[in-house]
Amino acid sequence: MRGWTVTDSAELYGISNWGAGYFGVDPSGDVVVHPRGEGGPVLNMPELVRDIRRRGLRTPLLFRFSDILHSRVKEIAGCFETAFQTFNYEGNYRGVYPIKVNQQRQVVEELVEFGRPYSLGLEVGSKPELLVALALLESSDTLIICNGYKDRAYMETALLAQRLGLYPIIVLDRSTELELLIKVSRELGIRPHIGVRARLAARGAGKWSESTGDRSKFGLSTFDIVNTVDRLRSEEMLDCLEMLHFHIGSQITAIRAHKDALREASRIFVGLHQLGAPMCLIDAGGGLGVDYDGSQTNFHSSMNYSTQEYANDVVAAIQDACSETGVPHPDIVTESGRALVSHASVLVFDVLGVDGVTRGLEPSAPVEGEDRVIQELYAVWKNVTHRNVIESYHDALQLKEEGTSTFNLGYLGLAGRARVEEFFWACCDRILRIVQDMEYVPEELQGLERALADTYYGNFSVFQSLPDSWAMNQLFPMMPIQRLHERPDRRGVFADLTCDSDGKVDQFIDLRDVRNVLELHSLNGQPYYVAVFLVGAYQETLGEVHNLFGDTDTVHVHADAAGGYTLEHVVEGDRVDEVLSYVQYDRRHLLERVRQAVEKSLRNGEITLEESALLRRRYEQGLSGYTYLERED
User: Fold this and answer.
1) HSE, side-chain direction, 13 A CA sphere, residue 114
2) CB of 99 within 8 A of CB of 108?
């Protein structure tokens, strides 16, 4: 058998398929980052982790690569510019970033900075997000798209933003919002920039497809849109209606869904123009996907199109509808948040230990007098072949059940039951080794790999750092960041630090199907780090403090041309007392309660003075410490 190479590891984990040119493996077997794309500076991830830990930060650790954010803004804008030139489009591209996708201040501020040459604006869906946009944007060249439920305060704030030289567009998501907008704009004497969100018949594709179509949560029917035009005309405000907005869901996996929606929306846009509304903007919403598994298919964790194909289809559909009817080409707005930020964030955690079925060991032969079940299981194990794997599996299952029954009836001792389990798992291991070389695996044996997988205990919380993995079975690329020049000798799943049985990751990306295990290395006494990639969208915002595990330490890394880096921002993760305060526990009150308990134990002679001092010191240190386990290198 030939030796293992880093190329084998790159193919095994599919890093070139989902990495989009930002991630790779170097000849020493380490994962490297190309923050500005291929041909730019290269950063070694294991070295980054070691350097940052030496600075006093801890794992789990979230990396945000600022240069990747910059690259994503440039790429998406560049794709639309290419499409404009290809189709002789006469409008402009006006991208906006939906704050809800990742609301962290450093992320939003960097996107605003990087997006300034491309007039990147912000999309807001609530009053708090609107307040962020007002503070960060400075020019009328950048749009503020105001979506979501709106009350008087929301509308007043959006309208008054015009006095700051900003360009807020209030999108009518529900027909009842129109009267309030008319009333507030009259009172303030400010003519609004209005958009209408169309509820399309076209549906999305992927996990969120059920939230689209005729019964989607937001949007106006064509009947409502026509009534809106009539009402605005009656108030002499039809000139305020500038934009058509539509959205068919997040992570659209199939380009056909985009095409269908664009065809329908373009016709609505033309129709509004023909009704007399001076439409100059069309907002295609979000939905530009991310290829999490690298398969380039319409699987829910992938997408069967490129960013350039998406841009081409958006521009072509709008151009066709407008040119055919003589309507001026509008500026095009998109809200591609997931595609902007997903690649920029990587979660790294350390493995604390491994638990699993011992594999590859040969159990000792039964001795005289051992139970019949043990003798027969030994015979099954000795005689497993390619020809009898199914029969051997059935025999092993039956004998294991007999051994359990015999134990429950008191005829087999605890040591005997342990021997039954030892031989059963040895049979399964030998069967699995044969099955892995078979072109077709019988259905009954397809669960063996999962059953024999090791459990790698990771120093992280699924609920805090990967909530979509838990809630929606979202797949994220995962792989070790070192030792990739070595052949992985184990197959495992991950369990997190929480005491919840759902706190695990046991589904992994694959080009053909979802894998139940991930190839990993045996622990060798050195820190073993695993990275979860493409976690920049939604994960930080949706995370929860299950078992009171809080935010992780976070660093913003900026690469320089010489191959070095600068930490632009360092955001320390939650301390224990901070997380406790979220659920209304006060640090001083807790310390006082413990002090009283210590004094009582001292009076009763249950604890020494030295022990009491150590306990109080550890308690105070615990309140100030990281919510995750802290490894000493």
Assistant:
1) 24
2) yes
CB 124 within 8 A of CB 132: yes
What integer pLDDT is reported at residue 500 of this predicted model? 87
Exposed, middle or buried by CB within 10 Å (0-12, 13-18, 19+), for 587? middle
Q: Counting Cβ atoms within 10 Å, is residue 161 exposed (0-12), middle (13-18) or buried (19+)? A: buried
Q: Please tell me what DSSP assigns to residue 249.
A: -
Query: From 3.30.420.10, 3.90.1200.10, 3.20.20.10, 3.40.190.10, which CATH number describes the 90-335 domain?
Result: 3.20.20.10
pLDDT tens digit sequence for 67-95: 999 999 999 999 999 999 999 999 999 99
Say what the alpha-carbon torsion angle 464, 205, 265, 143 is, to the nearest 10 degrees: 20
Q: What is the pLDDT of residues 490-511, one digit of tens each?
A: 999 999 999 888 899 999 998 8
pTM as predicted = 0.90
CATH architecture for segment(s) 372-449: Up-down Bundle (1.20)
pLDDT at 215: 54
Give the start-to-end residue ranges of the domains of the chain.
Answer: 1-86+344-356+454-573, 90-335, 372-449, 577-624
Domain 1-86+344-356+454-573 has CATH 3.20.20.300: no
pLDDT at 360 over 80: no
